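wait is this the right file?? whatever heres the structure
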């Protein structure tokens, strides 16, 4: 289960707690609902478990300017591995 708290004051901070497994679409909707050009931050301090889809999503978010704060080391390591992995060519 994932808990999401939103706060904003010039920037939007989403504090995530729990597991990020099947909630990627919900998080994508939250991002899309925010004003364009607004600084978005995910505080991951209390995230305990992620799956591969969540890691790919977080890597994508970071590549597109969303800040990941307080990212647990095991999640950071996995994000970095996903980002550094060469992509397969589609033939």
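ok assuming it is, sequence goes like this
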């Amino acid at each position: 289960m994932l808990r999401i708290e939103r706060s904003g004051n010039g920037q939007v901070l989403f504090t995530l707690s729990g597991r990020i497994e099947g909630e990627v679409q919900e998080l994508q909707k939250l991002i899309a609902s925010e004003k364009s050009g607004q600084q978005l931050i995910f505080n991951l301090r209390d995230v305990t478990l992620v799956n591969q889809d969540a890691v790919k999503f977080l890597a994508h978010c970071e590549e597109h300017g969303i800040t990941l704060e307080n990212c647990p080391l095991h999640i950071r390591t996995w994000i970095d591995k996903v980002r550094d992995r060469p992509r397969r060519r589609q033939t």
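The mean pLDDT is 90. so i think its the right one actually
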